[in-house]
């Protein structure tokens, strides 16, 4: 049993940081591919060939400007998500549910019957024809 004190099972988890870097590269690749598809292939050549002041190029320019604004917001928010600390639960936090309701089985979640009724209602609203 003495050898178990020196075994660190969390040493296996040190490779998970590499997966995190892979996810950042994956998101950067998806953003790059969407930029190439929207700007370089679809709308950029139209602005370049027809000039900025034709009617179709004005629409293309508007789409390019909106795309760049959304792109900046996307990159900014993703950077904040990756590099900010998510925080922790405050020390004085307590849940709204009392321990008695958890023990007796009373919960605030939907019952199976209520969830089924809600699903049927949603399907009805989706399938209802428009007037």
Euclidean distance between termini CA atoms: 75 Å
Question: Whole-number radius of gyration?
Answer: 26 Å
How many strand segments?
0
Number of helices: 4
Percentage of residues in strands: under 5%
Order of helices and strands: HHHH
Helical content (DSSP H or I, runs of 4+): 55-70%
* Overall pLDDT: 81
Largest sheet: none
Which class best fits the helix and strand makeup? Answer: mainly alpha
Shape: flat
| Uncertain regions spanning at least 5 consecutive residues | none
Transmembrane segments: 18-44, 56-78
Organism: Zostera marina
Keywords: Membrane, Transmembrane, Transmembrane helix
Protein name: Palmitoyltransferase
Blueprint (SSEs and pairs):
Elements: H1 16-50, H2 55-83, H3 99-104, H4 112-127
Helix pairs in contact: 1-2
Describe it.
Keywords: Membrane, Transmembrane, Transmembrane helix. This is Palmitoyltransferase. The chain has a domain of 82 residues. It contains four helices and no strands. With 131 residues, the protein is mostly helical. 1% of the residues are buried. Helix content is 66%, strand content 0%. The longest helix has 35 residues.
Short description:
With 131 residues, this protein is mainly α. The protein is built from four helices and no strands. This is Palmitoyltransferase.
List keywords for this structure.
single chain; 131 residues; mainly alpha; flat
């Amino acid at each position: 049993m003495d050898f178990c004190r020196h075994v660190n099972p969390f040493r296996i988890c040190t490779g998970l940081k590499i997966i995190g870097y892979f996810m950042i590269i994956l998101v950067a690749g998806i953003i790059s591919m969407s930029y190439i598809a929207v700007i370089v292939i679809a709308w950029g050549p139209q602005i370049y060939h027809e000039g900025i002041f034709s009617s179709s190029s004005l629409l293309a320019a508007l789409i390019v400007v909106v795309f760049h604004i959304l792109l900046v917001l996307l990159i900014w928010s993703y950077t904040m998500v990756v590099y900010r600390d998510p925080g922790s639960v405050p020390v004085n936090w307590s849940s709204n549910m009392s321990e008695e309701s958890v023990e007796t089985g009373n919960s605030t979640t939907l019952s199976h019957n209520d969830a089924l009724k809600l699903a049927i209602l949603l399907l009805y609203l989706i399938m209802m024809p428009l007037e």
